[in-house]
Amino acid sequence: MTQDQRYLARSPMPVPARALFDWHARPGAFERLNPPFDPSEILERSGGLAPGARTVLRVHLGPVPTRWVAVHTALEDGRSFTDRQESGPFARWEQVHRMLPDGESRSILEDDVQYQLPLGLLGRLGAGFARERLEALFAYRHALTAADLARHAELPGRALRVGITGSHGLIGNALTHYLTAGGHDVVRLGRGEKAGEVDGLDAVVNLAGSNVAEGRWTEERKREIRESRVRTTEAVVAGIVRAARRPAVLINGSAMGYYGDRGETPIDESAPRGTGFLAEVVEAWEGATRPAEDAGVRVVKLRTGVVLSPDDGALAKMLPIFKAGAGGRIGSGKQMFSWISLEDVVGAIHFALRTSALRGVANLTAPEPVTNAAFTHVLGRVLHRPTLAAVPATVIRAVFGEMGQESVLAGASVLPRALLDAGFRFRWPGLEEALRFSLGKVRLPSAA
């Protein structure tokens, strides 16, 4: 019989123990803690944190997915809860989540795990692998919990009722769980005319829009890209204008494609519109918000850069290639790559919801843009892989046409001047720290 193993993770938290416990008890907290570098599929959840509550997951341990059933067995309100594995990949698993007071305004989050690996050679060979995954998992969870709690504490106020279009996309889904775990009420809005059902909401976050980087831009595809943004925005704005009780703020998605290909010269929100299809789309997209502004609604237009997450988007597409050691620069590698971590996107949207002085255009990019070549080098270093391969610009143009030229070979050094001036603080301003966090490459110094 294999022996029990223990893993203990302890981290300081910027809120009292009661607030830490309440965050874990709300809808969305469990989803927030699901790591993007090693996600589990949630098949079933019921009962909250109370004894008898049940969670069913599909986890991936190698190429074969495994079903994990966890049941909550104990609860001390405001202080701790316990769950254990009913069936799953471990011979035994029991986890106690403790929220320990640390003075009046702070606390300690403690995750105490007792586990036993399966019998036989597989269990013995998997000991190091299991320990490594636990270290990555809890370092991510504790860092994210601390960041979320700090952001909510820094922007106090009554709970908001927020409508979100595009709520099932990468940003919208993360934002939904972030807000609900923070105590807000989220309404997932539909597309088209349903996006205009906003009466009685405190705020609307409009994130709808089809992916611009999916395949070549045929005329039909370009029309879809434009209409998915402009028409949904028009529907949202029309709903706001006719609402008996209007939302006080509209946070409207936008894109740094507005600036076009600008080389290495840093630019902020004062820069004029560039050229190209994306610049034209963004101009029409942002212009569709004007009736809401005319009606007295505060409107923030977030020109978002390349959002980094292993779940979806550009980084998710790059990872298999880079992990195989076949990654490298694209074209000359000199084109600017204005990026931002997914968690700073979510934090900035929350900041925009709460900050009445912020209005108009705001660039949603990290304050440290890099070249494509520099990004390639850093990602290779984080993954411990070579980055000697390169993709010639002629290949990109041949395969992707106009989309490849505007989205891959062009670039701009976009700075988030409006957000910085308004007081927003980036948690992951540097590329390497952002990649290490999202890819599970950080560890807790206090891990036991």
Tell me what the structure shows:
The protein has 448 residues and is α/β, with parallel strands linked by helices. It contains 14 helices and 19 strands. A hairpin with a 4-residue loop joins strand 5 (80-87) and strand 6 (92-101). The two termini are 23 Å apart. The model has no long low-confidence stretch (mean pLDDT 93).
Provide the fold topology.
Blueprint: E1 5-13, H1 17-25, H2 29-32, E2 41-46, E3 54-61, E4 64-76, E5 80-87, E6 92-101, E7 107-116, H3 121-125, H4 127-154, E8 161-165, H5 170-181, E9 185-188, E10 203-206, H6 219-242, E11 249-255, E12 263-267, H7 277-287, H8 290-294, E13 298-304, E14 306-308, H9 313-323, E15 336-337, E16 339-341, H10 342-354, E17 360-364, E18 370-371, H11 372-383, H12 393-409, E19 412-414, H13 417-422, H14 431-438
Parallel strand pairs: 8-9, 8-10, 10-11, 11-13, 12-19, 13-17, 14-16
Antiparallel strand pairs: 1-7, 2-3, 3-4, 4-5, 5-6, 6-7, 15-18
Helix pairs in contact: 4-10, 5-10, 6-7, 11-14
Structural class: alpha/beta
Largest sheet features? 7 strands, antiparallel
Counted up, domains total 2
**Rg to the nearest angstrom?**
23 Å
End-to-end Cα distance, whole Å, is 23 Å
- Tell me the CATH topology of the largest domain: Rossmann fold
Number of helices: 14
Report the mean per-residue pLDDT as an integer: 93
The amount of helix comes to 25-40%
Overall 3D form: globular
Number of strands: 19
Task: Identify low-pLDDT runs.
Answer: none
Q: Give the percentage of residues in beta strands.
A: 25-35%
CATH architecture of the largest domain: 3-Layer(aba) Sandwich
